[in-house]
Amino acid sequence: MSRFPLLRLPTLPLLNCIQYLKVFEIIDFSLLSKRTKALVSLVNWNHPDIHANFYENSKLCLKFPNDPGLQWILDFRVELDDELDHFIREIDGNQFPSYIDSALHGPKAFHYLTFPNDDNFETMRKMVEHISVVFRTPIASLSTHRLNDQLTMSIVKWLSTLQSSVVDLDIDTTDDITAPTLLFILDNIKVTDHFCLDLKMNTPDFEYHKGIDIPSVILSHSHCITLNSILNSSYRVLVLDESNLTLHDINTLLKCWLKGSNPQLEYCSIRRSMKGKAIEDDIDEAFQIITKDLEIREHVENEKRPMQIVTNRKLTYSLPNDLCYDIVRDDGTIGTIPQTYFSRSDEPDLVLHYFYLHVWD
Predict the structure, then answer these.
(1) pLDDT tens per residue, range 37-85
(2) DSSP 3-state of 81
(3) Is position 318 within any domain?
(4) Overall number of domains in the chain
(5) Which Pfam families does UniProt cross-reference here (predicted)?
(6) Given its phi and psi angles, is residue 330 left (phi above 0), alpha (psi -120 to 50 degrees) or beta?
């Protein structure tokens, strides 16, 4: 069978041929040489959403706006499927076994190009860099799952040198996370839409006082986030679990909001854990502290009030509507405050206090 001398074509006809390749064909062609990589990057592609997920079996997902029901996934797995035919692909001078597979889930189709994963995600990182150049598109979202402190720091440093910002950042750590890593993430990674930091334990002697200007922020074990940090920040949605804020801090937060602080705020949730007997055991007295010197009124159900908050494209919160009170800013914006106390069944002496503020017009 005769071969077609594709690379001998003039540049314009060659680019016209390249644009009809499928995604994995584009990737294979771009890996042949520096020239083919440069040629592929000249094509005017529809920019895909690129999602990089770092964990034991990592994934690099590409979704194109002109075909939302189709995902192209570079899958990096600890163990490859021996029943599928393996082919050798070369990445940055190193050869790797790989295979292609597909799956249907309802109306959506998933195509997989699978490589072996390595302990430090070096192959995954090289492919992220390569894909970003080929399609001239930065990573839209990056997530890590149960990575130790050293790997977490390595990946966020790599991200900070790769691009200036990321739309979504989701960091899920192990229990050995250190203050320097937290400080680096908070100080050096610019997130433009949604940031989730899932810590497994407190990091003692670390407090963060700077503002965090990200529209949607969800922090577990948020003891390190101080009142000054919140007052200096600009959020649309703020969710703090295991917070060290006091009832008096929450009162200050409400007073500052009434004076115009954080005008973009739509929803704030703060969870505090308290052991043993404390003033917080008395719901009425606790509510008096939270609303001290505030003009409050009993909330009346209003069909104009939305009952769900969308934090980002992945997560939606349903809003409580019982035992609520309203505070009103001078511009007519309403802040609705419900609060709930309950004891965790497996720890009878532990009281959880949930505070919510829902802002609506």
Answers:
(1) 999 999 999 999 999 999 989 999 999 999 989 999 999 999 998 888 8
(2) coil
(3) no
(4) 1
(5) F-box (PF00646), FBA_2 (PF07735)
(6) alpha
